[in-house]
Specification:
Number of strands: 8
Number of helices: 9
Distance between the termini: 28 Å
CATH architecture: Alpha-Beta Barrel
Structural class: alpha/beta
Strand content: 5-15%
CATH superfamily: Metal-dependent hydrolases
Number of domains: 1
Largest sheet: 8 strands, parallel
Shape: globular
CATH topology: TIM Barrel
Order of helices and strands: EHEHEHEHEHEHEHEHH
Length: about 280
Amino acid sequence: MQLFNNRYHFVDSHCHFDFPVFAADRAAVWAHCQRQGVNHLIIPGVSPEQWQTAAQLCQQYPGFYYAAGIHPHWIEQQHWCATNSAGLLDETTQQQIKQLLGDELTRVQRGAGKYCVAVGECGLDKLIQVPLALQQQLLGLHTELANQFHTPLIIHSVKTHNEILACFKQQPPRYGGVIHAFSGSLEMAQQFIAHGFLLGVGGTITYERAQKTRATFSKVPLQYLLLETDAPDMPVCGKQGERNSPEYLPVIAQTLAQLQGVSVEQVAEVTTRNAHRLFGLPE
């Protein structure tokens, strides 16, 4: 069923559309997305070998963009990752990360990698086995490169909002970014906004039991919000156990409109403008 038509224009600011689960029907899903008004999406980076896959998809599908980053869940899977006696990334590994990110972002500056619009997905996650101190060190390396190349960050934060803020105070990101899948309080939202960050609004708000998140997003002004699906994860209400998809982004927009008491058209217009401004997307 088509919920919307293409008179609306949406940007999915966080969608792992490069994952193998979309390989069989990616073109058909994207065609349906466009009929729904979803015209742009951003593929987050999770590991260096995945960046090239994302870049190739961006060349194949107009409206696709990607970010270069190492997700904390993926860092220890890199064959070149080594730690020192303190359990932190050793000097060689740190330099390798800087080299990889720096080379990718240099390509952008030279015009060869115009589809790369952010650094990330990077951040902190208390639900994985990677030591938090190592994750904080990795986040610092990403922030350093984002500042060096004048690029926004895509931040992953799972039960670590306070720790992320502490990292920002120690090493302020100069070009803002987005807190992916934000689920904190209004006070926490305001602190991230004060650091120049937008907040990613995902499928969580479609669940009535997510009262805190719904209450927060009913009050945060639209000018600080981006829409996202995190597909194939984070399905909207009613689609539990199924593959999430960027075609469900309008459902999130509709729910946000209801929470804020505004039109879907206004949600689409403002969040799309926010995404274009943050990531420097062409009109």
